[in-house]
Amino acid sequence: MVWIRHSSSAKLLADLAAQQADITHELLDSLPQDATMHHIRETLVATGVLPRRHETLAQLELWLTDFADALPPHQARIIRPFAEWQVLRDARRRAARHRYTAGAATGDRGDIRVAAMFLNWLDTQELDLDTVAQKDLDLWLTSHPTRRQGIGSFIRWTVARRLTRELVLPPQSKTFASQFLHGDEHHEQLRRCLNDDTLPLEVRIVGALIRLYALPVTRIAEFTTERFHRDEDGAYFTFDRNPVLLPPKLARLIEQQVNRPGRISMLPQSPGSRFLLPGRPPSRPRRASSLHTLMTQHGLPNVSARNTAMIEAVTDLPPIVISDLFGVATNTAHRWAQYAQDSWADYLAACQSEDGGAP
Q: Residue 357 pLDDT > 50, yes or no?
């Protein structure tokens, strides 16, 4: 009764019912896309009222419409085709392969925003896109050093379609990971994840997976329970294509999570496609951003722990094995192996700087 009287979700459902129209994705798309709308849409999908669609891609398309509509017409004439034929086309291709994540969508929004920012800068400099010279691009990069990666896609697109002269992005010196943990600190955090019963179960699982297998939180959030199985030889979890034998303590934690009786929603979970870390409603995974926050609250950093785990992995296993077992891109695994081989002193120096220079 409290929910019916005071919940924004209940009010939205009442408004939808009052319209006396078929509830469709298109109808929901026409309403403000806030947290309440996202929750109601997912609830309707989970109960079979609406068909499931790739929501991350759909939200990007909705966002683009609103973003482009707010631009001056002469900028929108450039941004719309760039976003449609460069950004969205690639996003749809990746979504069809089930490889388009919320993080990727955030990056795509960033590329579109930077393109619009560049066009706005041209307006303030009283420059036209078709007359932009290399010196103009260099000046923009100098005044916007953090936007270099974002503008690259747009410049390559304009050059390919002869909207600009031949422009070249100056080569950027490649940087590598700089945040690491000391070995003792890394292993102490791992022991804490495996043994500390005062930590929430999901924190222990996420923390252990990061520190053992260098997995990003965005991937962990997408894991489903059928990836875990046990046989007479032990417990296994399939991170990518091949099952990985788990340490007994981690296996017990994951098994406990899989068999957890608690319900966080009145909506039933489908036995065949349950998320290991269910969100609200449980038909979708827990948001990676909330997991990041949760880990930080319990003193378990993500980036430095993942970098340290990757360094330890490439010193013990060949890059191709890491790629096959943990789902790391082959070239990324080779880069890490080369970094560990050539820059071990840099790694140790980075560890010391993270610890305030202590030996």
A: no
Looking up residue 307, the CATH number of its domain turns out to be 1.10.443.10
What is the C-alpha separation between 323 and 308, in angstroms, rounded?
17
- Which are the contacts of 12, defined by CB distance < 8 A and separation ≥ 6? 36, 37, 40
pLDDT of residue 250: 95
Spatial strand order in the sheet of 228-231: 228-231, 234-238, 243-245
Does residue 130 sit in the same domain as residue 196? Answer: no
- pLDDT at residue 197, rounded to an integer: 93
Instruction: State whether 35 and 98 are in the same domain.
Output: no
Q: Is the four-CA dihedral 298, 304, 310, 315 of positive or negative sign?
A: negative
From residue 136, alpha-carbon distances to 11, 57, 161 in Å are: 52, 34, 19
Instruction: Tell me the three state secondary structure of residue 278.
Output: strand
Across the chain, mean pLDDT equals 87
Question: Residue 275 and residue 102: Cα distance in Å, rounded?
Answer: 16
Domain count of the chain? 3
Same structural domain for residues 218 and 330? yes
Please tell me whether residue 243 adopts helix, strand or coil conformation.
Answer: strand
pLDDT in tens, 329-351: 888 888 888 877 765 555 555 55
| Relative orientation angle of helices 89-96 and 102-124, to the nearest 10 degrees | 180
3-state helix, strand, coil in the chain (%, to 5): 65, 5, 30
One-letter amino acid at 328 equals V
Domain membership flag for residue 221: yes
Domain range spanning residue 131?
69-160
Domain boundary among 97, 126, 160: 160
Say what the pTM is. 0.73
Cis preceding linkage at 281, omega within 30: yes
